[in-house]
Design brief:
Keywords: Membrane, Transmembrane, Transmembrane helix. The chain is mainly α. It has helices at about 1-15, 20-45, 55-60, 70-95, 100-120, 125-130, 145-160, 165-195, 200-225; strands spanning about 15-20, 230-235, 240-245. It is built from nine helices and three strands, in the order αβααααααααββ.
């Protein structure tokens, strides 16, 4: 009887599979890298008016410009990740688990970050931040308020993620860390380059391209994080989605 029971458990394990996440992450990361590379090459290495500042190529492809292809790509990843967290939250709630609320909360936060990416709300902190520091001292003066806001978001996500499956929590926090290394850390590097008179240099171009790459890679990691909590169970001729315990 024990052998029969072990055989059934082995068959059950064979029927259950994790949802692939490395492949989707590789695709998202590759597209992000290509967009950043095209932006840098077209600006630094291609001598053509179409790709120069003010040209159509620069407007649509440069990562330093808002509302263009790289921005749209980041928004798509944000929305995909937010919907993934909401969907997995629905699965947990269907099982009567209160942790589903944490998944929904994280999904809502990703949508808020997406809104900021789309509208550039963080840059509107410029005016109130000028009450605390001079743009001559801190050229990207919005960082004065942006840094504590970023810390608040990180602390909030860490608190909410305590009730999220461990595998997903690891990717979520890693992605959030990557995102803010770019959005705040490398933005600060760019600000310092401006302050030291290198605001028109290739160093600044490299800095803001690295900034956007870190942001995109961070969003990509967060976008696939919900997949780590889902497993596919093959039952007869049907496929059933199951979620990991927290």
């Amino acid at each position: 009887m024990a052998e029969a029971s072990d055989a059934r458990e082995s068959d059950a394990r064979e029927q259950e599979r994790s949802v692939p996440w490395r492949g989707p992450l590789a695709v998202l990361a590759a597209v992000s890298l290509i967009l950043v590379a095209v932006s840098w090459v077209s600006l630094e290495l291609v001598a053509h008016p179409f790709f120069e500042v003010g040209g159509g190529g620069h407007a649509y492809l440069n990562v330093g410009v808002e509302g263009n292809v790289p921005t749209w790509w980041t928004i798509v990843m944000f929305v995909g990740g937010a919907l993934g967290f909401v969907f997995v939250g629905v699965l947990y709630r269907s099982l009567g688990q209160a942790s589903g609320l944490s998944w929904w909360f994280v999904g809502a936060l990703l949508l808020l970050l997406c809104l900021d990416e789309d509208t550039g709300l963080h840059e509107r902190l410029h005016e109130p931040a000028r009450l605390l520091a001079s743009p001559q001292d801190v050229p990207f003066v919005w960082l004065i308020l942006g840094v504590p806001l970023a810390l608040a978001v990180i602390i909030t996500v860490i608190a909410a993620a305590r009730r999220i499956a461990r595998q997903t929590r690891t990717l979520l926090l890693a992605g959030l860390g990557l995102f803010f290394v770019g959005a705040v850390g490398l933005e600060g590097v760019g600000s310092q380059l401006h302050a030291t008179g290198l605001g028109e240099s290739s160093w600044l171009v490299a800095a803001y391209h690295a900034e956007e790459l870190f942001e995109m890679l961070g969003v990509a990691v967060m976008a696939v994080a919900p997949l780590r909590a889902v497993r596919i169970w093959r039952l007869d001729r049907s496929l059933v989605l199951r979620v990991r315990s927290t």
